[in-house]
Structures are given as C-alpha cells and as structure tokens.
Amino acid sequence: GENVEQHPSTLSVQEGDSAVIKCTYSDSASNYFPWYKQELGKRPQLIIDIRSNVGEKKDQRIAVTLNKTAKHFSLHITETQPEDSAVYFCAASMIAGNQFYFGTGTSLTVIP
Amino acid sequence: DAMVIQNPRYQVTQFGKPVTLSCSQTLNHNVMYWYQQKSSQAPKLLFHYYDKDFNNEADTPDNFQSRRPNTSFCFLDIRSPGLGDAAMYLCATSREGGHHSYEQYFGPGTRLTVT
Lengths: 112, 115
Known about the structure:
A: six-stranded mixed beta sheet, globular, B: mainly beta, 0% helix
C-alpha cells in the first residue's frame, strides 16, 4: 500500500512567522492530497487539499504545493497565529480503492 | 447540522467483552471508513465500504469486523477487545470513488476504554 512520511514531527514558531510541513508519498497512483488540522480531542478537519493535476493551491494564509515527479507535497502557513497550534496530518489517496493514508502528524506550536 | 454522527462518544468495555460502535451520516455519501487513532498517532485505516463492497486493510486484525446495513449506517464490531484496542475510533465518509477522490468528512469519534 501507500506509504506517507511527514516531517517534522514537532514544530515551534513565533507568532507571525511562517510554518512549513513536508510530506512524501510512495505510490505514483495517488492523486488527491488533503491536509487536516486536529485539535486535542477533536476530529480531523480538512483545511486544504490538492489534486494531482495542480501544482499549487492557496487559501488565505494556507497554501499547498505538490511535486508529482518527486512525490512530495508541502503545507505552508504564513503569518501564524496561536490558534494555528494543533496537530497537522497530510494524507494521500489513490485513484482506485478509495483508501486514504495518513502521515504521522506534525505538532505545531505557535508561540505568542 | 451534524453530518457524520458517532455513538456513543465514550465507551467503556471489559477485556474480552464484545462492543459495537455506531456511525451514521446525513450526506448520502457512498463511501464510509473506519479509522483507529491512538494517542499522538495518525489515524489508521481499518476498512472502508464503497456502497456495499467491503474493503479490509491487510493489517486489520480479525478481531475487528464491520457492517453496513444501508447507506446511512455503518457499525464497527470488536469481538474480543484487548487492552491494546483502547483508542479513538473515527468514522468518515466521502463521495464517490472511481477515478477521483473527494474530501473526507469525519465524525467526532468514539473513545474506547478497555478495562
């Protein structure tokens, strides 16, 4: 099956700085790459996603980039705020089978 | 309005005593998933249904079973819970499959404690 690796596992940034989280995947058949934010004790919430026919997508302070050749994609959060503190998961989904495979998560702390 | 509902939110069961977790959805999505999430770990896919077609992950223990009697409901049965099965169980849904994958909607989860 698909193998998704995510780095770093923890990340601390000063409020206002940018945060970058990177993921790699193994199966070139994966074509959908969502990012989830999970606050303690709550469900994962989709914050942005990208499909394999697009190289970059932006939504306000959040952007995702995808490099299909290298099989990696990244989450960029600009002008970070304390409420951005949470665990972020990347995931990859394959064309056939409907499976979603999650990365190991990044615990982001934004220091006021 | 709640779109993916899980009951109960908290479940305590005894070692070896069968337990059933419930998930329902109002989205009319044809794909439903069950994940296991342990503390500080990523959600781990146990299995999913595409309509009535059941798809088991290769490393999902036989102790875990699932039923989907109709589009709206999906159940996770743990036949003989062990201490290692204590976790948050997340249900999710998504629309269609085929050549595209679509956003997953997660339920609030059921936290299972095994005593």
